[in-house]
Amino acid sequence: MKLEVKIPDTVWLGRFTRDHPELALESTNLVALPCGDFLGEFEIHGSSNDWTHEIGRSPDVFEVENLEKAPESGKYRVRFHRSITAALAAQNEIIIRFPTTSKNGILGAELIARPSQMRRLVEALAKEGKEPRLVSLRRDSLRSVPLLLTPIQRALFRQALVSGYFEVPRRITLTQLAEKVSRNKSSVSRTLAIVERKLAELAGTVGA
Known about the structure:
By secondary structure, the protein is an alpha+beta fold. It is 41% helix and 29% strand.
């Protein structure tokens, strides 16, 4: 599904994009740190200004670095406080497809999940005051997820979800997951890579 969510002013993305509605921010990568914070890479489109100091003044931002500057864009690495949207998605076993886009206080993202998981996420976001809006939903593509995977891939993917491998931060390591399913680490890694590629390809058809 495609979902739009209101970003609160307590989050730097919300304040920054409302202050600069002419800009569009793409989150191209997001990593959960052991302390619970996030480290993300963002591309800012629509200006050649250096936004390092303005982003760094946000109370929830701990560190910001300008990685690259172009005539009408810039790339930044930002370490900031915990993302409620990413946490709720992880709790509901939902995959967020990157990049996500933020503009004028609204976050737009493509998600992969079962309808029941989507309902739980939307309800949780509404309770948090995020004003979620469902832009599009392809149930036929969602139902085809199990058909994309072999029984072995499906069983491993289900175990990884239940065990918290895809949560942010992860509740289980790749080594621990391999031990849980009685397979070697390299085999589990290869299988999960195939599963993630297939889901990414599916997400591409959903967004088409």
